[in-house]
Specification:
The protein has helices at 13-22, 61-80, 95-111, 122-128; strands at residues 6-9, 29-32. With 136 residues, it is mainly alpha-helical.
Length: 136
C-alpha cells in the first residue's frame, strides 16, 4: 500500500487537470479512474472549443474563470507539447433579434477582456466559411 498526500477520484478532464496542478506542489498525487483509460466518459465528447467568455455576464465568477482558462490555454498546450492554434469562431445571427444578441455578446466580451471580437458583415462571413448558405 502506497501513501499519497492527495488522491483525485475521477480521470475525466477536470480530474486530470486537478491532478496535474496538484503536482506543482511537493505532493504525492494519485489519480483513480474506474474505466480502463482516462477521459473516456463525458470528457471524450469535448468539442475542443476554447470558450473566451464573450457571452458571460461581466463581473461574475464564470466570466472570470472562462477568461482566465482561455488565456492560459496557449501555455498549457506548450507545457504538454500539444499543438494548438487559435482559429476563432463565427457566431451567426438572423434578423434584428439576432443582431441585438451579437451586439450584447460583443459588449460583454469587451467588458470581460476578450480580445479579437468584432461583428463582421455577410460577405466576409461567406469568404471565411463558404459552406454557410448564401441565401440566408
Amino acid at each position: 500500500m502506497t501513501d499519497y498526500d492527495v488522491i483525485v477520484i475521477g480521470g475525466g478532464l477536470l480530474g486530470c487537470f486537478a491532478a496535474r496542478n496538484l503536482t506543482r506542489y511537493r505532493l504525492s498525487c494519485a489519480l483513480l479512474e474506474e474505466q480502463s483509460d482516462i477521459c473516456t466518459g463525458i470528457s471524450r465528447t469535448n468539442t475542443a472549443v476554447i470558450y473566451g467568455s464573450q457571452d458571460n455576464m461581466p463581473g461574475t465568477l464564470k466570466a472570470d474563470l472562462c477568461k482566465r482558462a482561455s488565456d492560459g490555454f496557449d501555455g498549457l498546450c506548450g507545457d504538454l507539447g500539444v499543438e494548438f492554434h487559435r482559429c476563432g469562431s463565427l457566431m451567426l445571427c438572423f434578423g434584428d433579434g439576432g443582431l441585438k444578441k451579437l451586439e450584447r455578446c460583443l459588449s460583454r466580451g469587451n467588458e470581460n477582456g476578450v480580445k479579437g471580437l468584432r461583428i463582421i458583415e455577410r460577405d466576409e462571413i461567406l469568404a471565411l466559411e463558404p459552406n454557410i448558405n448564401p441565401l440566408v
